[in-house]
From TrEMBL:
Name of the protein: Phospholipase A-2-activating protein
Molecular functions per Gene Ontology: ubiquitin binding
Keywords from the named record: Cytoplasm, Repeat, WD repeat
Region (Disordered), start-end ranges: 204-252
Domain of life of the organism encoding this protein: Eukaryota
Phylogenetic lineage: Eukaryota, Fungi, Dikarya, Basidiomycota, Agaricomycotina
Ranges where the PFU domain occurs: 100-195
Organism of origin: Rhizoctonia solani
Principal location: cytoplasm
Start-end of Low complexity biased regions: 210-223
Subcellular location: Cytoplasm
BP term (GO), one: proteasome-mediated ubiquitin-dependent protein catabolic process
Pfam families to which the protein is assigned, alphabetical: PFU, PUL
A Gene Ontology cellular-component term: nucleus
Length: 460
């Protein structure tokens, strides 16, 4: 792509692939020639891609590779080992080009020129892509070290999983690799990124609930660059009239602190919302569904409040100092409920069409509702729908461990609450057990396995 980064990728029912990039352009790729652009447009696109500049660290190094060690143009005469393979080639003029192997076309395609980076925050290149770090990892004696690329705003578990998969290493080493990354990434902390914009499609933090065996009233907030929410930071149990059953050491449940979405592109959200409303008001058939002047004023105030909350530190907007009342929230809910489903995407769509970002956000909302239920403030009539949502996520999520873990904590809170209330039936307990076993199989990492074990202990 002739852009700095690709932010999202989706597939169409007809098999076409759609991409959204940092240059604000949506592009559609198809194998059906009838839907191809004309030759002039395709040539223009390929020229833009070929002229894309990829920064390197200095004039003598390309990432962790010396330019003198790079192959010449003759490397392009050999076929690539797999589709999408990227190699760097030194030209006769001394410049470095990045080429990607296209298995469909059976040739190398130039994807950019590698140039010198500018500024202090220089990146390193690995397989033609930019990273904040490229570590050298010794796997065994006598074997050359392997390169482990990592970005400071990246989920260490994602980087570790990618590293192990690319090098065909066992996944049981994932915690060791994560520990190596956290130790060698220069002390970078997720919360240090909180005042910077984070690409919601490339960054993520890992939810690792803290043990509650040691009571503490100190809450620490960590910024999740993937969803803008805080990292799970459970609080200790306070004394109550009916104390909960004793918990084993290092237990996680219950988790009582909700997560907030404190990082978001709110101006873009506001513009999109107003665009959708304009579309409704401009059509005689839907004009009655558009915002009234009073509702429009309320939504403007809501966006102003969100911008203020997202500011670090939070500030009071000049327009108003008042928080939203329950009546305000009810009006907003009524507006969204009356809008057509096409204007309420993606909530109206099936789970499998959600992006990774949206899945994490959905699991976070499900978790927050479990906290509401935990403190006894949920409408009993809404509880069955909440359980259905959590089990839907756990039954369908097969790829993103962050989504799975947040939904799993939500389920743990639900079971903890219903058991303490004496409303956990044997039928429900029996239904939860195979679901928990499946989650542990899909996401066999330590935090998931520990939580599954604790929830099963609650079920008895």
């Amino acid at each position: 792509h002739p852009a700095i980064s690709v932010w999202t990728v989706a597939t169409m029912p007809n098999g076409d692939i759609v991409t959204g990039c940092s240059d604000g352009v949506v592009r559609v790729f198809s194998r059906n020639e009838s839907r191809w652009a004309n030759e002039e447009t395709i040539r223009s696109f390929e020229t833009q891609v070929a002229n894309q500049a990829i920064p390197s660290n200095c004039s003598e190094l390309v990432g962790d590779v010396k330019k003198t060690d790079l192959p010449g143009p003759e490397a392009l005469e050999r076929s690539g080992s797999k589709d999408g393979q990227v190699i760097m080639v030194k030209t006769a003029a001394g410049s470095v080009e990045a080429h990607e192997w296209s298995a469909g076309e059976g040739k190398w395609v130039k994807v950019g020129d590698v140039v010198d980076a500018v500024g202090q925050n220089q990146k390193q290149l690995h397989n033609g892509k930019e990273y904040d770090y490229v570590f050298k990892v010794d796997i065994k004696d006598g074997a050359p070290p392997l390169s482990l690329p990592y970005n400071a705003t990246e989920n260490p578990y994602s980087a570790a999983q990618r590293f192990l998969a690319e090098n065909e290493l066992p996944m049981e080493y994932i915690d060791q690799v994560v520990s190596f990354i956290e130790k060698n990434a220069g002390g970078v902390k997720i919360e240090q990124q909180s005042q910077q914009f984070v690409d919601p499609y490339t960054g993520a933090s890992r939810y690792q609930a803290n043990p509650t065996s040691t009571p503490s009233s100190n809450h620490t907030s960590y910024s999740d660059p993937f969803t803008g929410a805080s990292r799970y930071a459970p609080v200790s149990n306070h004394a109550s009239a009916t104390p909960p059953p004793p918990k084993p050491a290092n237990s996680i449940l219950p988790v009582k602190s909700t997560l907030s979405f404190k990082q978001a592109n709110i101006p873009a959200m506001e513009n999109k919302f107003k665009h959708l409303n304009d579309g409704l008001s401009g059509d005689p058939n839907t004009s009655s569904l558009a915002l009234t002047p009073l509702e429009f004023k309320l939504f403007n105030r809501s966006f102003a409040l969100m911008k203020a909350k997202a500011h670090s530190p939070p500030k009071v907007p000049a327009e108003t100092s008042a928080e939203l009342s329950q009546k305000d929230i009810d009006i907003i809910a009524d507006v969204l409920a009356r809008w057509p489903s096409l204007q309420r995407f993606p909530a109206a769509g099936p789970y499998h069409v959600l992006t990774k970002t949206q899945k994490v956000a959905l699991a976070t909302i499900a978790f927050n509702y479990s906290v509401v239920e935990l403190v006894g403030k949920m409408d009993p009539l809404a509880a069955p729908a909440h359980v259905s949502l959590v089990t839907l996520i756990l039954n369908n999520e097969k790829e993103d461990n962050e989504t799975g873990y947040r939904a799993l904590v939500a389920l743990g809170n639900i079971i903890y609450t219903t058991k303490n209330q004496g409303s956990l039936s044997e039928v429900a307990a029996a239904a939860y057990k195979p679901l928990l076993t499946n989650v542990a199989t899909v996401f066999p990492e330590e935090r998931v396995l520990n939580l599954v074990q604790e929830i099963k202990a609650l079920l008895g």
